[in-house]
Amino acid sequence: MKHTIKYLTLIAILTSASSCKKYLEQAPDLRATINTPAKVSELLVTAYPRGSYITFCEAASDNAEDKGIAATDEDLPAKPVNRDAWYFRDIKSNDTDSPDNYWNECYAAIAVANQALASIKANGNPQAYTAQTGEALVARAYAHFMLVTLFSHVYDVSTAETDPGVPYVTEPEVVVFKKYSRKTVAYVYQQIEKDLTEGLPLINDNSYKIPKYHFTTSAAHAFAARFYLFKKDYAKVVEHANLVFPGGNIAANLRNFVIPAFTTLEYGARQALYTAADNPANILLQETETGWARSYPSYRYALTNNLLYKTMFGPNVTGANWDYKVSGREFTLNTSKFSEHFVKTNPNSDVGDSYAMIPIFSAEEVLFNRAEANAYLGNSDAALKDLTDFVNKRIIAGSTVTAAKITSYYKPVSLSAGIVQTVLDFKKTEYLFEGLRWFDILRYNLPVVHKTADLLTTLTLGPNDPRRVFQIPEQATLAGIERNPR
């Protein structure tokens, strides 16, 4: 059923008419079988994008450098998803880690959410499906948020009413080659907020077998905090961040990299812990089909020694040293974050698909979002406390983040600006290999400069460069969707 429903999406429109026709011939009978809350819940397991944005977002950011002029694709893999993103080129690939695939997987997830909502409506008795309705609405909002973030201009209240958005799809497909309108970023944000605010109160954590794989109330609040940070509604960021954990206590749920229980772990054990469902820092986890877990240490455009000594081994506002664990050598520097789960498609060969568990929302992000929002709201003491709580989970000797240290280190125009810069710098280091630095680059229109290892070529992605928006798949034009300008 999962694979059939996936064709009830833009994927079908973007691939072949025959697939659409085949689905439309079968769909009514299949939809009729989704007729109990348990069956709708089973369907919603696939209402989350199974693609990954990490590979292309990481390579496009300033968290990736060229490892060496002598490196070849055989020595250091430089697939288009890694190389083209680093060169700020459109990625002409449908690799599982490509923007095209992420677009498709988001709309596949949206289609599942829409099918769930349609089945609930058709079954009558909506009160029996309250929890499923909540999950479907929030999941639909999340997938659209990721799409508009990566494939449209970042939200700016002064331009959102005219910036092209992405199709906000709210109904299952019933025709072949339906035409879609991108409308505007403002419209997409309005629809996201509508789904999010309607769905969040309906969620019931007790309806899930493994809560960390679903939008629990905590995960929905974490998503809301991220959404409102992009929207610059800072009071709501703090409001939702405070509701992620009981009593607003984020510090108790942070990953602790300085205790012996972590520092004595072997590499593989640290990998497993980072994405474990019982790790309190992980708020929402998603299994994705991706080659990232296998390739991220060896990609050519990634962490270099130079970058390492600007981030994990570099100076910071506390004056103390970070205690991040870094593995590998010059061409394979990495941190133990992801492990691959390889599934053979043929038991008699080594051919198969690679998967990895990805933290979609974490306690660390919630803390950073709250600290940044409090800085803008003038709540400096609260922001400094959050940042101090964070560094005490990353620096063995312990340290503090104070107004005096920020003023001395950054010499900012204001304490608020200094706190924000501290947050951005901490996140740049914390999220190496996770692609999340790209989101801050978008929000703050930060320039990105890439230099080839031979120092002969400098590539600059300026604040107004249209290439900051990833290109919409070429096949989407079949659905009447205009591609992004270049």
Explained architecture:
The chain has 486 residues and is mostly helical. The protein is 44% helix and 7% strand. It contains 20 helices and 7 strands. The strands form 3 sheets. It has a 3-stranded antiparallel sheet with strand order 2-5-4. The N terminus is likely disordered.
Essential attributes:
SusD-like_N; disordered N terminus; mainly alpha; TPR-like_helical_dom_sf; single chain; 486 residues; 7% strand; three-stranded antiparallel beta sheet
Q: How would you summarize what this structure contains?
A:
The protein has helices spanning 2-6, 10-15, 17-32, 37-44, 54-60, 80-86, 99-123, 130-151, 185-199, 217-231, 234-241, 260-263, 267-274, 292-295, 305-308, 363-377, 380-391, 403-410, 415-430, 437-443, and strands at 65-66, 282-289, 301-302, 341-344, 352-362, 448-451, 458-461. With 486 residues, it is mainly α.
